[in-house]
Amino acid sequence: MYGGKIVMPPSALDELTQLDVELPINFEITNPANVELNTHAGVLEFIADEGCVNLPQWMMDQLRLNEGDPVRLVGGRYPKGKMIKIQPQSVDFLEISDPKAVLERALINYSCMSAGDIIEIPYNTLTFRLLIMEITPPGPAISVIDTDLEVDFAPPVGYVEPEYKRPSDLLPTMRDKFTIDTKGVQDVDARGSGTATPVPGGGAGAGGKGKGKETDGGEGGAAAPASWEAFKGTGNSLGGKRVKGKGVKAKAIEGIDENSRIIRTDQPRIVTADTQLGTRQVPAALNLPYGALFFGFDLSNARPPPGSDAEA
User: Fold this and answer.
1) Is the model's pTM score more than 0.90?
2) Longest Cα pair distance anywhere in the chain, in angstroms?
C-alpha cells in the first residue's frame, strides 16, 4: 500500500460522525513505546477489521512498528502547505525524465506531510524513497489537499558534483595533432601581402627584421615598403582581351561646373590602400595539410560554471 493514508475500522467513522467532525480529517500517529517517533496521515477508507489500523510499510518503518503493535491516533487539522524540500535517497531518481509529473501523480495519495518523514513513491516497477527535509509553514505537519505546493529538490544521497573541465582539456585538438602555432605573427604591407617570414610566438625575425625585399643600398640597408598603386594590375575583359590598368594617377581629376553642388577641397585626396593601411603585424598563415580544417583557436568567451574554483 503506497501513499500517506491509513485504513481505519467502520466504528471509527461512526464515532467521528457522532462528534460532528468535518471530514476529511488527519491524524497524528505515535508509537506508544517511543513517543518521539510520530508521523501524520489522512484516511483512505473505513473498511479495516475492528481494533486494527492498516498503515503503509514506509510508515511502519518510520515508527519502528511490527505487525500487531499498538499505535496512538490523535485527530488534528493542519494549515495548507506552501513549500516542501525533499531529498531523494538514491541517485537513480535523477534518471526520471519528468520528476514534476511523477510527484504530482504520487502526491494525490497524500493528505498531509511532516518534516523528517521518508515517504515512498512508485515509478513504473521501481519505488523511490524521499526525505521530507523542510515544510512551509513550519509546524508539526501541513495539508497538501487543494493547495499550490512548491517543491524544492536537494541533491540525492550519494550524488557527487561532476568536476568541471576546460573545453581544451576534454579532447585533443587539431592544433595538438598538427603542432600548429596559433601565436605566430608576420609583417604585411598596405595591401595585406606578407613582407616577412612568419615568426612562431610573435615578432618578425631575429632583430625585428624580416626577409622582405632589399633596397638598392645593399644587404645592410633597411627594407623599404614596395611601391604600389591601385588599378595597375592586369586582367581579361568580357571579350577575352587581356588588358592592363593605368592606375589612379594616369587620369587627371575632372573639373566641375561652377554651379555644381559637389564640394571639393583645395587639395584633392586620392584614397588608396597606402593612405588607409600601414605596415602592421597580423596572425601568421596556418600551413595545414591538404583537405584539413582547423578550429583550434582559443575560446576567450568560455566561462566556468558559477561557484566553481575556476571562476574564483
Assistant:
1) no
2) 121
